[in-house]
Prior knowledge:
It contains 18 helices and 15 strands.
Amino acid sequence: MEPVDVLKQYFGYPSFRGCQEAVIRRVLNDEHALVIMPTGGGKSLCYQIPALMERSFDDPHPPLTLVISPLIALMKDQVDALRQRGIDAAYINSSLSREEREQRYSAVRKGKYRLLYVTPERFRKPEFLDVIGQRFVSLLAVDEAHCISEWGHDFRPDYTRLEEFRDLIGNPTTIALTATATPDVQDDIVDQLGLDDREVQRFHEGIERPNLVIDVKHVWGDEEKLEFIRQTAEKYHGSPGSGIVYFTLIKTLERFSELLRKQRVPHLNYHGDLDRQMRRRVQNDFMSSRCPLVLATPAFGMGIDKEDIRFVLHAEIPGSMESWYQEIGRAGRDGLPADCVLLYDDRDLMIQMEFIQWSNPDPDVYERVFDVLSTDLDKFHSLGLDWLRERLHFRGKHDRRLETALAMLERYGVIEGTWDDPPQLEVIGELPAELKQRGLLAEKLKRDQQKLYSLVQFAKLESDRMPFVREYFGL
């Protein structure tokens, strides 16, 4: 059976697009690949098709394709879609109960599943290592591979252990995939996988999405932003399709929501202060087109695969070119025209500059947070996040250094649990050297500032902006 036969049988497409078939044949030939392909370009088929190909291996169980993804919501959506097509796939992550995880571990041992999705943090669990060691992993697929690189826009420390993970599962054929990676990030991905650059073929589909109409509109103040949002919603009112308006701050999103309600513009809100049930309800209403417009923070869109998004507006400047490109990539996946407009106001820069500062704590912050958690954990459990913030003298209204520090301590395996109300954390490791190195953290801050500056340069161009975008991404 040829790859195209599997494509037709399981996915219903008559032929491959772009470099998909070349990537698949390379993987089937047990050779490594790095794939940079625009959002919606069909990256997942590059490892799903090989996983379904019948090949001869010296193993009593079917070979397993292990997919590492940082996004719990996305892996659930992908597995649900695969199972609806009759494909034996599963995921194991922290969203499952202990009983559910044990059931899936047992199924893995017995040889079930052609594709298994996990977060990189799963490799910290001895029970997972025991189970996965009993299966022949024929292919390792690393999704959202830009998370490998400390210079990427969504760095995950556990991704830097992928060379170790590959060794633990027998150094299988590896494919890394992402929609955005500058040349530096591409080099870092290959290096962090423990591969020689000569072993890895890079497939770059470019960043061109001809159906996306990219524009920047310079505005002054909320009134001009509100009017443009209203006009865009009105333009598409009554026609098929949906739209997303991205905000950086929840308070700004809520202010615009109230203004739009007064103008009777129907919409949904999605942000991190909503509980999980409400976020799921908003996502379902948007996906089913019960309400075609959503005002959202950048968290919305992870796992969103809706073909008919007709516009993506940024009401506040994102933090980097990579973030902007990832977010507009959710538009026009059906190939029809879609508007992608950045509403640029110089005054919004201060918000992002603060965000960059808060997302790059210095070593003193990490050491103070770690020290308090190590010595006064019971008090933190009793009094909560506000007590810890006060104890650390983080009194600024928008100071998010504490949340960043906790998230990084969790990612590095120093703590586990939840710091929401009520908090329930456990300190399980020591403060890693990476969070003590002042020079390394300062360099990361500088890189983040440069990324924001590049986006400002992009916004202020008066000529065709696409050459600038191509150069930024090394094309």
